[in-house]
Amino acid sequence: MSHHYTRETAAQGIENALKLLEGRWKLVILFHLFGGHVLRFSDLERAIPGISQKMLIQQLRQMEKDGIVRRIVHQQVPPKVEYCLTDWGQALCPALDALLTWSAQRESTDVEREEATRQD
Amino acid sequence: MSHHYTRETAAQGIENALKLLEGRWKLVILFHLFGGHVLRFSDLERAIPGISQKMLIQQLRQMEKDGIVRRIVHQQVPPKVEYCLTDWGQALCPALDALLTWSAQRESTDVEREEATRQD
DNA sequence: TAAGGTACTTACTGAAAAGTATGTCACACC
DNA sequence: GGTGTGACATACTTTTCAGTAAGTACCTTA
């Protein structure tokens, strides 16, 4: 399946992709689930200091809806619910790597020297 | 220069990178400047329907501060100010491509079938 | 019968981002 | 002297997002 992007559709496509990653806690959650980890709600809660239950569930549910996270409910009392990444969620790795690489490149380009406002 | 990331620093690093791209209009602006295009303020205004002057200048200035966009002031009246990407800004291309690729992969993985909530 | 454990939900509050509308500046030309 | 041009700045309103606090459901064990 081949894709052809115009300025507008490409911008739109990336905007959509970014929207899936925006949110104060999504990346933190993501990185805890990378590598095939399967964690309970309470595990994540403990692993991410500062997050509230409301935020945790909100971001998890959003990512589940977006197909990034899988939710596994075990029928028992007290409740046990586990979270892990979908294949597609795992596939985010290279894309995030590319961003990290870009971020790290900053020093090596002449950005610093370019920063001053130019006047002609 | 080699980098070593932990879960936390990697998440942090990507969060920082994403912060540079977040904002209702940044990507649209970016895509208009990709390919070495040099555009005046008014060009961008016309090219991006729906954007207000306030938003346009706000996002441009932010990206300038972040080292993504270069601002070129011509001393004349009426004013003439041009915008283009820095080298580092141009270097975003592959990273955004990776995101777009990931986004497009969605169909080919079994996300759709995985979407239903699992129960054990 | 009371307490507790786990994964939530809901209502409320405050901060940050975006949108709208109007004003400004420095000159050039008529 | 009045008008127009291009690139902004500023004040104000609206919308969106995050955080805090409290409550719920269900069953289990003491």
What this model shows, in words?
- The structure is a homodimer of 120-residue chains.
- By secondary structure, chain A is an alpha+beta fold.
- Mean pLDDT of chain A is 90; it is low at 116-120.
- Chain A contains seven helices and four strands.
- In chain A, strands 1-3-2 form a three-stranded antiparallel sheet.
- The interface between A and B is large, with 59 and 59 residues.
- Strand 2 of chain A pairs parallel with strand 4 of chain B, so a sheet runs across the interface.
- Chain A binds a DNA duplex (30 and 30 nucleotides) through helix 3 and helix 4.
Percent range for β-strand residues of chain A: 5-15%
In round numbers, the mean pLDDT of chain A is 90
Greatest interface (CB-CB under 8 A), with counts per chain: A-B, 59 and 59 residues
Largest sheet of chain A: 3 strands, antiparallel
Radius of gyration of chain A: 19 Å
- Helix vs. strand class of chain A: alpha+beta
* Oligomeric state of the chains in view: homodimer
Instruction: List the total number of helices of chain A.
Output: 7
Rough shape of chain A?
Answer: globular
- The parts of chain A where pLDDT drops under 50 for at least 5 residues are 116-120
Q: Spatial order of the strands in the main sheet of chain A?
A: 1-3-2
Q: Please give the alpha-carbon distance between the first and last residues of chain A.
A: 47 Å
Q: Can you give the helix content of chain A as a percent range? A: 40-55%
Would you list the SSEs of chain A in sequence order as H and E?
HHEHHEEHHHE
Q: What's the total number of strands of chain A?
A: 4
